[in-house]
Amino acid sequence: MMNAQSRIFRSVVVIATALGFGAGCGGTVDEQLEPAQELDSVAQEAVAEEPRKFEDLIAGLDRDAAVLHTIDSEQDISLRQLQAVKIGENKYEMKDALTGDVTRFAVQVYPITVWPSLLKRCSNGQIVFSWQTCPTRIVTDPLTRVWKNSSCNWRVQAASTSACTNTSSGGSYRYQYLEAWKCGVGTGYCVERRAVRTIRYDYDLAACNPAIITGVTPTAYDFLCLR
């Protein structure tokens, strides 16, 4: 059964495709174009708890290359956290519980002694593999990361809807803010991946009249986990 974020994300994709909206030609962007939300108290208290230590990252699934890179001693737990199913010799499949995306991949293991040398920290604080180019936008980051000493306990956005804004052309728009969580310090494991955080709805009529919806577009992504 899909969770609420997954259902909303799938609905956005279906509606946006039908309306001709997409990631091409300046479609999906990472910049939060909508009015910024204040972080709630839960997020403010947890800001210092974000685990970004090399030793806490035990696996990274490169969805573009279809390879899960992981420490040899952490292979089994990484596959369990990803809810991956074996479908062949060194072939696995997972359906992301948050985004609904299906990925098939192979596994490459490394001894823990060389693992830190495979990682690098980007200027934005994200950890990627040494052979990867640091992504400049969240939407282009290919990694699903598995953390230890962590749990999905850092709420960065509460669910809400913005006020309706009328445009000079007679249409209108509003934003839907999805409840969003990140991996924070904990005692277990946490899977974090790129996911939609905010959606813009465009209407042909004023006052956000739902009679004619002309666009449903993700406008902000983040690295999120499933709570």
Question: If you had to describe this structure to a student in words, what would you say it looks like?
Answer:
By secondary structure, this protein is mostly beta strands. The two termini are 14 Å apart. The chain has one domain. It has 3 helices and 14 strands. A hairpin with a 5-residue loop joins strand 6 and strand 7 (127-129). Residues 13-34 and 36-48 have low confidence and may be disordered. Strands 1, 2, 3, 4, 5, 8, 9, 10, 11, 12, 13 and 14 form a 12-stranded mixed beta sheet that branches. 13% of the residues lie in helices and 41% in strands.
Give a brief outline of the structure.
With 227 residues, the chain is mainly beta. It has helices at residues 4-19, 41-46, 75-81; strands at 57-62, 67-71, 85-88, 91-95, 102-110, 119-121, 127-129, 143-157, 160-161, 165-166, 172-177, 180-185, 188-203, 213-224. The protein has one domain.
